[in-house]
Amino acid sequence: MTDIVSESLIADQNTSLADRLDQDFESLASQLQHRGHDIEEITKEKLRRSRLLFPVGVRAPVEHDSRVFQDWQNRVMFSRSSKTVPVINKLVRCTPGVSPHFPWDRVDDFSELKEHANQLGLVFDAVNSNTFQDQPGQAHTYKYGSLGNTSKAARDQAVAHNLECIEWGKVLGSKALTVWVGDGSNFPGQQHFIHSLERYLDSAREIYAAIPDDWQMFIEHKMFEPAFYSTIIQDWGTNVLCAMELGPKAKSLVDLGHHAPNVNIEMIVARLIQFRKLAGFHFNDSKYGDDDLDSGSINTYQQFLIFNELVDAEYRNAPDFNPAYMLDQSHNITDPIESLMNSAAEVQRSYIKALLVDRVALDGYQETNDALMAANTLKSAYNTDVSPILAMARKRSGGAIDPIATYRAADYRLQLASNRPAKGGSSSGIV
Ligand code: ZN
Ligand code: ZN
């Protein structure tokens, strides 16, 4: 498929849109100039900082014998890393990385996978361990937890899986391990809060000890699900306490969907930055809970306010500040390629808008307690349509002015060539 979305198709599609884009870009340039911003600097320099990783997380078929299963995993990983992700990056030019999920993305030969992916300009980072599901043939169940299980054997098994993830990640060139566990309880009294967290911490210390010096350990919290009364790392508070307990290589990962409704996530981000504990993000959007809706589909102002904190940290040169940007979404009814391209643009859109905040003015309004003008300063940046910057940055780096239209044009050609079977109703939710 990479050759179907060819350079010449992108150039063709761009030709018809280029004049209009030039005009829009010019007019935005003069608007921004009046406000003291150099559009060229934003387009050239700044966008480079908001590159995204895709968690690939390919869910396995339910029933399988292990040989067939391993073949299937090999096939999917190799085909995704040669087809899906490079196609997206070719069109949007800001998504060069993949964050694999084990054992879902396990292959027989990780060095072969790395070489294969690197040849296509793709990198791997932030490996994810999975101890929230029982895998076929595993000795001890995670029904009552993994790293915090009352059974030492189950805890050891979960630790061992994290250690193998680190080894596989080393081969792939990763620099971080993301640990999210589903441990928790469904009834008041079911678990001793303190004892279970002590068990979790003991296990986490063993994992931390195996984290290489140039790696980080990302801890991901989640308020509820699959445990519905209490979750062991339920919020950023417990998350950051554990990260502090473990040491400087441990940091807190913020998944936007993993908070109670209306929680002030931008403020959590500011706190984590202040204490040098912000690992990065799993971007998605939500209406009710952990909906994993597409980024920027519901609460775009919140996403902008989060980026406002991130740009503020850049502006102040905050120490130890290098967050990882990842998308973690479920695509239930859309083509995942289209959704991921859209979402990447939405994340970048928030970043660009946050760059437009007049920080000197905002600081002045904060010092003089001018609440209305402080809020208006943010709004004026948020209300600016920065689409021409995103499109121009894509075009200049060889991507598509309109990625969805170009992808659909390629898809149309693909169908004409009968190169692939007709679309079925089911596809994996996560690419
Ligand atoms: Zn997540
Ligand atoms: Zn989630």
What report would you give on this structure?
The chain is of the alpha/beta class. The protein has a single domain, classed as Divalent-metal-dependent TIM barrel enzymes (TIM Barrel, Alpha-Beta Barrel), CATH 3.20.20.150. The chain is built from 14 helices and 12 strands. The strands form 3 sheets. Strands 3-5-6-8-10-11-12 form a 7-stranded parallel sheet. The model is unreliable at 58-64 and 423-431 (pLDDT under 50).
Brief overview:
The chain has 431 residues and is an alpha/beta fold. The chain is 49% helix and 10% strand. The chain has a single domain, classed as Divalent-metal-dependent TIM barrel enzymes (TIM Barrel), CATH 3.20.20.150.
Secondary structure topology:
Elements lengths: L6 H28 L4 H6 L8 E3 L10 H27 L4 E3 L1 E2 L7 H10 L3 E2 L2 E4 L21 H21 L3 E5 L3 E2 L7 H18 L5 E5 L9 E2 L4 H11 L3 E6 L9 H10 L3 E6 L16 H16 L8 E4 L8 H20 L3 H9 L3 H12 L4 H10 L6 H14 L15
Parallel strand pairs: 1-2, 2-4, 3-5, 5-6, 6-8, 8-10, 10-11, 11-12
Antiparallel strand pairs: 7-9
Helix pairs in contact: 1-13, 1-14, 3-10, 5-6, 8-9, 9-10, 11-12
The chain binds zinc ion (ZN) (2 copies).
What brief labels describe this structure?
431 residues, alpha/beta, TIM Barrel, 7-stranded parallel β-sheet, 3-stranded parallel β-sheet, 14 helices, disordered C terminus, binds zinc ion
